[in-house]
Every structure is written in structure tokens, then in C-alpha cells.
């Protein structure tokens, strides 16, 4: 179970790196610099939150397997990082677009959700071929 979770995270890392690369291209080659910088800031913060959640999930799985107590999933740290990104975007509006920053944070969860759907359909199709 944990191996598939780590594999899923590594797959999502590739997608997020591609999106951040696309933001860099948009930053360099379009006049919408503040929008792409806001998206990039949001994606980086969302990626950090996702990494933190995966790290805490790994620690929780290990603690449960060893019958040790486990406390918290890092919710305060994840909320704090989004608040920090929002503060940065509002204090520096000439560099970061606030709405694209928040869109970038949410885009990480959209990517994760879409990958889950596509991968589930792929696995279902793969198992249907094997049985049929």
C-alpha cells in the first residue's frame, strides 16, 4: 500500500514540475508576468503542502505498524503556508497575482484528483483485459 502511495506521489511530482516549467515559459515569453509568477508561487506552496501530507502519511503508517502513538497530520503547517503565500501575493501585487496564486494552490489538488481518475480507469481497463 505504501509503495503505491509513493509511486503515485512520484508521478504527481512529474506533473507538477511540468506545470511549474510551463509557468516559467509563460513568465519569460508573455507580458503576463505577475499572473505566471502567482501561479508558480501557488504551485510551489501546493506542492510543499502535498509533500508535507505525504511525509506525515508515511510517518503515520510507520507508527501504526509499530503500535506507536501518532499525533497530527500537519494541518496547521499547511494552512500557515497558504496564508503565507496569500500574504506575499497581497504585499507584492506588482509581482504576484493573488487569484492566480490561490489557483496554483488548488491546482495541485485538481492534478491529484484527475490523475486518480485516469489511473483508476487505466487499471480497470487493464484488469478487464486480463480477465476477458
TrEMBL record:
Alphabetized Pfam families for the sequence: ATP-synt_I
Residues annotated as transmembrane: 12-29, 75-92, 98-122
A GO cellular-component term linked to this record: plasma membrane
Membrane topology: Multi-pass membrane protein
Keyword annotations of the record: Cell membrane, Membrane, Transmembrane, Transmembrane helix
Protein name: ATP synthase subunit I
Main location: membrane
Annotated source species: Listeria grayi DSM 20601
Subcellular locations according to the entry: Cell membrane
